[in-house]
Amino acid sequence: MLEGERDDSGFHPVSRDQQPVSLRLNQCAAASSLVGLRRSFARILRRGETQPVVDVMDKVVSLCKRRGFVFQSSEIYGGINACWDYGPFGVELKRNIKDLWWREMTQLREDIEGLDASVLMHPKVWEASGHVEGFTDPMVDCRECKARFRADMLDEARCPRSGKPVLENCAEFLTEPRAFNLMFKTHHGPVEEESSVVYLRPETAQGIYVNFLNVIGPARQKPPFGIAQIGKAFRNEISPGNFIFRSREFEQMEMQYFIPPGEAEKWYDYWRDQRMAWYGTLGIAEDKLRFHDHGPDELAHYAAQATDIEYLFPFGWKELEGIHNRTDFDLRRHIEYSGKDLSYFDPESKTRFVPYIIETSAGVDRTLLTVLVEAYDEEPERVVMRFHPRVAPVKVGVFPLVKRDGMPDIARRIAQDLKRRFRVFYDQKGAVGRRYRRQDEAGTPYCVTVDSQTLEDDTVTVRDRDTMAQERVPAQGLLEFFGERIK
Fold it and tell me: Model pTM?
């Protein structure tokens, strides 16, 4: 998507005095006058408006590091801003989310095909798409601390020197906003010259559009049909932040649905509902999700209709996924720039048309952050990640109560047997209560403990993460037991 990230608020019918900081900054950042910016900042500061201090994100970030979900990239060298590495539990959580999306969008449907397009593409692709000319964000510099910020997100920014909000510390030192292109530029081949310039893709959608003819023929499809892709994208964000919510390297899950022009309204409404329903299958609470329909002044240049699925993060309502009616803009632009005919001839109606496109564009990393935030819970005696079993990185923990009397051997046999269907974590170190707590923090829905009674009747203790209730289950029936509960 070409449109910049919107703020978390500003979509309610309220008076100007009730409008949140971010909306008024979006309005004033659009002005070219530095005086206007300063006056707007001053008014906001006089009213004493500040962002609430939220420690939930700090706790989630700490747990992610402690339990091996997410680490800062290149940490031993001091890290690199807005780039993240996924650890053992994080990579499993991420894979589960992607697998569930892929299953929903391709495996269970006959009208959507998969694709894995190259990250590097011909530079004219990005000219045709409008990225070279228009993929920009407004940027301001602070003449005092020398930092750079997105002009439309100053209410979220902090001064790197003092740690204070930019609006309190740097407002009088900010330059006028100017356009900054977000694409990463590199060179293709051994010689660095203008003719070898290529870009790291800022979105995966264009790889789908340029492969429209390559897919529709071999797949024996006809509109309406879709092409789905999961892949990395790169944006040189001015002000990345909020952990993995906005980073410079991220992963997208996008589906482009090609349709006859007259069916755009029907399929837009269909995919709007389908995509919202999918988040419920991940265990996301319905009251923390909402639609934001774009008004005429918010629509991207390519869109006739657009809506965002938003989630209530600790830092406010933020976009999770976008659904857009992109009309025939993309294919017509590529027809113009490539000279190739990307139209479709319908043998039944004997008509030729350039398909309209309904886009669903979700972020893997944002979905993962949503799942993390939604799962995080604290009780007096423990911290627990209440992941839905579908997305939980580890499905079952297996422990011997003690390291003697043959219990470890039995526990390992059970773990090996369960591994045929589930991700299993074996642990025999420390008191069993501490092992339970470690798995609670990892979000493991069930734990199996081999104890002295196992030696007598071949049953084991199965503990439920959420209720902490325990029950005896025959060791030979564990696959069936968990199969009914983890679907």
Answer: 0.84
Cα separation of 374 and 369, whole Å? 8
Does 288 lie in the same domain as 159? no
DSSP letters, 44-97, are: HHHTT--PPP--HHHHHHHHHHHTTSEEETTGGGT--TT-EEE-HHHHHHHHHH
Residues 325, 399 within the same domain? no
Backbone angles phi, psi at 286, to 5 degrees: -60, -35
Question: Are the beta carbons of 430 and 402 closer than 8 angstroms?
Answer: no
Q: Is the peptide bond before 224 cis (omega within 30 degrees of 0)?
A: yes
283 phi and psi angles, rounded to 5 deg? 90, 15
Does residue 449 sit in the same domain as residue 473?
yes
Say what percent of the chain tops pLDDT 90: 76
Query: How remote is the C-alpha of 432 from its chain's centroid?
Result: 35
480 lies in some domain: yes
The total number of structural domains in the chain stands at 3
- 308 CB contacts (<8 Å, ≥6 apart)? 6, 291, 292, 294, 319, 320, 321, 322, 323
In a domain, 382, yes or no: no
Nearest of 461, 454, 448 to residue 415 by alpha carbon: 448
Question: Does residue 143 share a domain with residue 206?
Answer: no
Confidence class for position 156, pLDDT limits 50, 70, 90? confident
Is 58 contained in some domain? yes
Which backbone phi and psi does 261 adopt, to 5 degrees? -55, -35
Which pLDDT tens digit goes with each residue over 159-193?
888 888 988 889 889 999 888 888 999 999 998 88
Do 341 and 431 lie in one domain? The reply is no
Type of residue found at 22 = S
Quick check: 72 pLDDT over 80? yes
**Range of the structural domain that residue 97 is part of:** 53-125+192-372
- DSSP output for 358-402: EEEEEEHHHHHHHHHHHHEEEETTEEEE---TTT-S-SEEEEESS
Is there a domain that residue 381 lies in?
A: no
Do 242 and 109 belong together in one domain?
yes
pLDDT digits (tens, 9 = 90+) for 375-395: 999 999 999 999 999 999 999
∠ Cα 45 47 50 (to 5°): 65
C-alpha to C-alpha distance for 339 and 353, rounded to whole angstroms = 16
Question: Which amino acid would we find at residue 122?
Answer: H
